[in-house]
């Protein structure tokens, strides 16, 4: 039997075994660890971080989750046709064919139910499904964001055109089935892109965003803004990050790659001032509104590339006592890290969702005189790949 046939048989066996837990297992690429115990998964993730950070710093035990299911507060569905009937689901791993999914072990259950009910409405409202191949059709995706503490629900209908048939009646029908929905937004995405959201939002119902409470602050979260997808673990992650910063109330702190200002606002009550830096203009708008709504007066925000903003601050002779940095999976830039060194903070708290780029950046920061004292992995994405484990690190200036 050739190798290809063997691999195919192994794949089929795995799918059959996993299908007991989830019909899409082995296809959507989400639950890599579905077959083992949660404890084993935590051990492997911790070991993965240890391997990546070998020779850099000691690694503390991983912080796991008590109930590691249905934690995703943001759910995105894609639609397609099978024998003329519309179905909804998730893209197959590394492909754009849709795997049917009605309920997922990781996703918020209310969100999954709303998606199924929207799918049920499409035919009677004559809403067509967008095809990437023909570029014909209206509805590309449905995204649901749900506030874990507030229960608020934002439904985002991602469409190719702002002309949505009988939109008021559609919203009315949806609200009748799901009175818990607090806002509905049309997001127009008419580009040939694999990005889910377009730039234009039209509010059909409610305020156009949700609010959620995290670490005693209330945050406003718009369609496009980054917000951690596992609120239970985020609380633990931010508490650890602020604890590592060891703030006394006298510090000038920077929250780089700040999103809607969540880490900076959590730290603000313990620091003198905080400056948040973020590229996404809508996230900065949310961050400013969040600071105002929570009466946090010692935090300010800059919109722009973190590397460019920090370079400018370094050139102006600015100083910081503590820098929080939480870059995207690709990690930080040398321009940013060069400038951090010029600002001369005592401590850097690095939050990362990619141990590989984290290791690369920690090595670069070591060359700049910042040594990593400790790292703590946090399981933000239970059942998914070890490569996605979150880690929070403390770096200090001076000798190793
Ligand atoms: C992993 S998220 C962290 C956000 C926030 N700290 C949180 O916990 O919610 C990374 C953030 O970096 C922002 N970002 C990406 N590239 C950036 C850049 N070059 N400069 C500044 N911010 C950037 C993204 O828009 C996103 O909000």
UniProtKB/TrEMBL annotation:
Instruction: Give the species.
Output: Anthropogastromicrobium aceti
Which Pfam families does its entry note? tRNA_U5-meth_tr (PF05958)
Q: Where are the transmembrane segments?
A: none
Q: What is this protein called?
A: 23S rRNA (Uracil(1939)-C(5))-methyltransferase RlmD
Instruction: Classify the source by domain of life.
Output: Bacteria
An example Gene Ontology molecular-function term? rRNA (uridine-C5-)-methyltransferase activity
Q: Which BP terms in the Gene Ontology apply to this protein?
A: rRNA base methylation
List the InterPro entries.
Answer: MeTrfase_TrmA_AS (IPR030390), SAM-dependent_MTases_sf (IPR029063), U5_MeTrfase_fam (IPR010280)
């Amino acid at each position: 039997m050739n190798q290809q046939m063997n691999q195919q048989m192994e794949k089929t066996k795995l799918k059959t075994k996993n299908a007991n837990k989830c019909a899409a297992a082995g296809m959507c690429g989400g639950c890599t660890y579905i077959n083992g115990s949660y404890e084993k998964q935590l051990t492997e993730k911790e070991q993965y971080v240890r391997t990546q950070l070998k020779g850099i710093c000691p690694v503390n035990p991983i912080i796991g989750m008590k109930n590691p299911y249905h934690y995703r507060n943001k759910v995105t569905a894609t639609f397609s046709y099978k024998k003329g009937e519309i179905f909804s689901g998730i893209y197959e791993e590394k492909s754009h064919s849709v795997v049917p999914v009605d309920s997922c072990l990781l996703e918020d259950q209310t969100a999954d139910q709303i998606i199924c009910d929207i799918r049920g409405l499409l035919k009677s409202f004559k809403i067509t499904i967008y095809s990437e191949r023909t570029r014909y059709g209206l509805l590309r995706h449905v995204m649901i964001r749900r506030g874990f503490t507030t229960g608020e629900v934002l439904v985002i209908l991602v469409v190719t055109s702002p002309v949505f048939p009988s939109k008021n009646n559609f919203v009315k029908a949806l609200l009748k089935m799901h009175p818990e929905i607090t806002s509905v937004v049309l997001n127009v995405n008419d580009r040939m892109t694999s990005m889910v959201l377009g730039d234009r939002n039209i509010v059909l119902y409610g305020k156009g965003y949700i609010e959620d409470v995290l670490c005693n602050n209330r945050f406003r979260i718009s369609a496009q803004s980054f917000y951690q997808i596992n609120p239970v673990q985020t609380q633990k992650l931010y508490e650890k990050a602020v604890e590592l910063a060891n703030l006394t109330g006298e510090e000038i702190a920077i929250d780089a790659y700040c999103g809607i200002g969540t880490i900076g606002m959590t730290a603000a009550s313990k620091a003198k001032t905080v400056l948040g830096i973020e590229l996404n203009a809508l996230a900065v708008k949310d961050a400013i509104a969040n600071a105002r709504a929570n009466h946090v007066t010692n935090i300010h925000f800059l919109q722009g590339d973190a590397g460019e903003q920090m370079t400018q601050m370094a050139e102006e002779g600015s100083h910081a006592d503590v820098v929080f940095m939480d870059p995207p999976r690709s990690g930080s830039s040398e321009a940013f890290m060069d400038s951090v060194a010029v600002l001369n903070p005592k401590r850097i708290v690095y939050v990362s969702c990619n141990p590989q780029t984290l290791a690369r950046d920690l090595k670069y920061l070591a060359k700049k005189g910042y040594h990593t004292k400790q790292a703590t992995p946090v399981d933000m994405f239970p059942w998914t790949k070890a490569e996605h484990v979150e880690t929070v690190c403390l770096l200090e200036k001076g000798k190793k």
